[in-house]
Amino acid sequence: MLCSYKPLVQGYYSPHLNLLNQNPNISIPKTKTQFERKSVDGRFEDIDAGADSSGLWKFALPSNVKFITSTSNPFVKHCLKLKNSSSYRHSHASALVVGTTPLREIYRYKEASQEKTVIDCLLLLDKAEIPEGLDTHYGYVVRVSSMVMKKLSGVQSAESIEVIALMRFPTSFLNLSIDQNKSDSRSWFPSTHRILVLDGVQDPGNLGTLIRSAMAFQWGGIFLLPGCCDPFNEKALRASRGASFQLPIVSGSWNHLETLKGTLNMKMLAGHPDIDWKTKKPFSLSQEFVNSLSHAPLCLVLGSEGRGLSEKSQLECELVSIPMSGKFESLNVSVAGGIFLYMLQPKN
User: Which residues form the tRNA/rRNA methyltransferase SpoU type domain (predicted)?
Assistant: First the structure.
C-alpha cells in the first residue's frame, strides 16, 4: 500500500498540538455527532460531550471505565481514524502503537536517554496482564474485547496482540512546514554526523525498515523530503519496531535540507545503481571510499522504489552504487539502504 504524507496547514495543526502539550485529555475535532462515554457497571453509555474554551470537543475517558466491547464505540472510532488517516493523526499529534515488542523498545530507549514519552491510554485485551516493563508508563488502562482488539490491530488473531497504546508524537519529530520558528538547522538533530534523507519513499514497510536500520547503526536522524510516507503510518510503525519514536525525524523541503548542508558543511551522497546514470558516474561503495568519509559529516539520500532518485537529488549529490556481481540492476530500497547504513555507519 502506498501512502503519501501531506503536512497540514499551520492554522489547523498548531491549536491541536498546543492543546495536547497542555492537557492530557484526548481531544477530537467537533463533528455533527459527538459523545462522551461514562461508565455504568463497567460498561459505556453515551452522554453529550462538551466543548472547551478552544472550541474543540473533548473526549475524556472516565478513570473507572473497565471495558469497551463494541467497535461502534466513539473512542474506538477515534482510534481507527488515528490508525487510518495521516491528516487526523497529525492534527492530534497522536498515533496507535500496536503490540508489546515495539512499546518495550520505545521505553527501553527512553529510560536510557531519560526522555519522556507519553501514553495517553493503554488498550488491553480483556483478562490480559499489563506487559512487564510498561506497568509504570501509561496514563490509564481500558480493557477491550477481542473484537475491538482485532479491529484496531488489524490482526486476525486478536490473541496474538494483547496491548495497543495511544501515544503522543515524540518531541524529536519536527515538521518544518508547520513549525516555522525552527529555523536554526543546528537544533533539528542532536547529532548530525550521519543523516539519512528519504526522497519520495512511499512504501510504509520500506520506510519503517529504513528507520529501524538507521537506529540500529546509530545514525543521527531521518530527513523526509516531500512525497514520503507518514512515519507514523500503521505499517511504518510496525516495520520500524518503535524506532519512529526513538530516532529524530524531520520533515521538510530541499530548501531546508540545503540550509542544513550549508550550516554544517555536510557532504551529500545519494544511492544510485551503476546503470542508467545521465550526469555523472557513481562512485563504488568500497571500503577505501568509506574510509575516506569516516570523519566527514554527511547526508545519504535514498530514492523511491519506483522512480528512484529525483532529478534534484541526482544533481545535488555525489552518486554512490553498491557493487554487485549478480545480474540484477538494483536492490529494494530498504535492502540497499541497510547496506549503505552499515557501511557508512559512524565509527566510535
Answer: 195-342
Q: Provide DSSP, 186-230.
A: GGS-S--SEEEEEES---HHHHHHHHHHHHHTT--EEEE-TTPPP
Q: Are 290 and 347 in contact (CB under 8 A)?
A: no
CA 172 from chain centre, in angstroms, equals: 10
Per-residue DSSP letters for 9-33? PHHHHHHHHHHHHH--SEEE---SS
Identify the CA nearest to 296 among candidates 267, 270, 317, 319: 267
Which of 187, 209, 229, 300 lies closest to 86 in space, CA to CA?
229
Instruction: Report how far residue 44's alpha carbon sits from residue 137's, in angstroms, rounded to the nearest whole number.
Output: 25
Q: State how far the Cα of 202 lies from the Cα of 210, in Å rounded to an integer.
A: 12
141-164 per-position pLDDT tens digit: 889 999 999 999 887 665 678 899
Helix (H) or strand (E) holding 198: strand 194-199
Residue 133 falls in which region: left (phi positive, over 0), alpha (psi -120 to 50) or beta: left
CA–CA distance, 297 with 260 (Å, rounded to integer): 11
Residue 249's CB is within 10 A of a number of other CB atoms, namely: 27
CA dist 200 → 2, 87, 197 (Å): 11, 18, 10
Q: How far apart, in whole angstroms, are the C-alpha atoms of residue 213 and residue 335?
A: 10
Q: How many CB atoms lie within 10 A of CB 206?
A: 23
User: What's this model's pTM, rounded to 2 decimal places?
Assistant: 0.80
d(CA 134, CA 169): 18
3-state class (DSSP) for residue 287: helix
- d(Cα 336, Cα 203) in Å, to the nearest integer? 15
Find all residues with CB under 8 Å of 17, minimum gap 6, and list them. Answer: 93
